[in-house]
Specification:
The protein is an alpha/beta fold. It is built from 10 helices and 16 strands. It starts with a strand and ends with a strand.
């Protein structure tokens, strides 16, 4: 089979690999499409994991083979995949901090080599412990919509971390694909969203996704008023300072894009202590909300089709990663298409 293999920093090569062999409790899925995720971009650009690997974890495809002990699925079913599953028993899981669970940190889908998602390949092996996250795709929905389940899951998980009441005002800084998801999901929960971005074109999209107000990030001032929570969908220190400045007392600032270790900034600690402003984070997905995510996506209450701007064939995976890493004004979600 063909696979886009990571061979080192910024080095992705189209190679021939054996089709994965599955065990008794596993699935073999023929990949149709895989989204390009910022976490994979970071690994490819900074070499945070040793090669060789096949990345790609926002994956949808068709079951072509089943292990003899697998139940609940059948060959030919179209499915969206979920590559991390927590143990649900450890200290972290009992505190609903699933991304910190050691079991969760294992990747349960591979196209070969050390498991790394495998979606940039023609076939993937789905291991038994991640089968609870596999979602069947309704007839009316597409592979592309199913490939968006994982990123939507991460956003909904983050939204659920916010202590909000209907009618509250929320700043969403950054209106790329993730920020637009936040804008829509918060609007669906009855929040009044103030969306900011550096690009006017993104602000027009934010209005379509439910933003009550929009503002260029460079023009933020006291005139925008105060808000009850802020979501930072961009790793911007300026956005953090703005968020803390305009946040009401006892409000929350949620960091969603600050994933680089060692990054530091100054914070007025009295704003946390005296003003009771919370600085929190959210990372990765939560399989316990997978059914709710599927309802939102497949019902098109959150119409993820409008977020997809570019599609690249498997042999152009490197170009897809490059565009997602350096987005243009007209680019949003980038997909790698493997099979129809």
């Amino acid at each position: 089979m063909r696979a886009a293999v990571y061979r080192g920093v910024n080095d992705i090569r189209l190679e021939q690999l054996p089709v994965p062999r599955i065990g008794a409790g596993e699935l073999l899925v023929k990949v149709a499409v895989c989204g390009v995720c910022p976490t994979d971009i970071k690994k490819i650009h900074h070499g945070t994991l040793p090669p060789p690997r096949v990345f790609g974890h926002e994956t949808a495809g068709t079951i072509v083979q089943m292990g003899r002990s697998v139940t609940g699925f059948r060959v030919g079913e179209r499915v969206g995949l979920h590559h991390h599953i927590p143990c649900l028993k450890c200290h972290y899981c009992r505190h609903h901090a699933f991304a910190q669970c050691e079991t969760y940190k294992r990747t349960g889908i591979t196209a070969g080599f050390e498991p790394a998602g495998g979606g940039y390949a023609e076939y993937v092996r789905v291991m038994p412990f991640v089968l609870p996250g596999v979602v069947k795709i309704p007839a009316k929905n597409s592979f592309e919509e199913a490939a968006m389940l994982e990123p939507v899951n991460t956003v909904l998980k983050a939204v659920k971390r916010l202590n909000l009441l209907p009618g509250d005002t929320v700043l969403v800084a950054g209106q790329g694909p993730i920020g637009l998801m936040f804008t829509r999901l918060l609007e669906l929960r009855g929040m009044r969203v103030l969306a900011t971005d550096l690009l006017p074109s993104r602000l027009k999209l934010a209005k379509k996704f439910g933003a009550h107000r929009v503002c260029l990030a460079t023009r933020m001032s006291a005139s925008v008023g105060q808000f009850d929570a802020a979501v930072l969908a961009v790793p911007s220190d300026a956005a953090l300072q703005q968020a803390l400045q305009f946040l009401r007392g006892a409000g929350q600032v949620l960091l969603f894009a600050h994933t680089k270790r060692g990054a530091k900034t100054e914070v007025d600690l009295a704003s946390v202590c005296v003003d009771e402003k919370d600085l929190i984070g959210s990372y990765s997905a939560d399989v316990t909300i997978q059914k709710e995510v599927a309802r939102l996506v497949f019902s098109r209450q959150l119409d993820v089709r409008k977020l997809i701007s570019h599609r690249f064939p498997l042999e152009q995976t490197a170009e897809a990663v490059a565009l997602a890493a350096q987005p243009t004004p007209d680019s949003l979600k980038v997909l790698v298409t493997v099979a129809g």
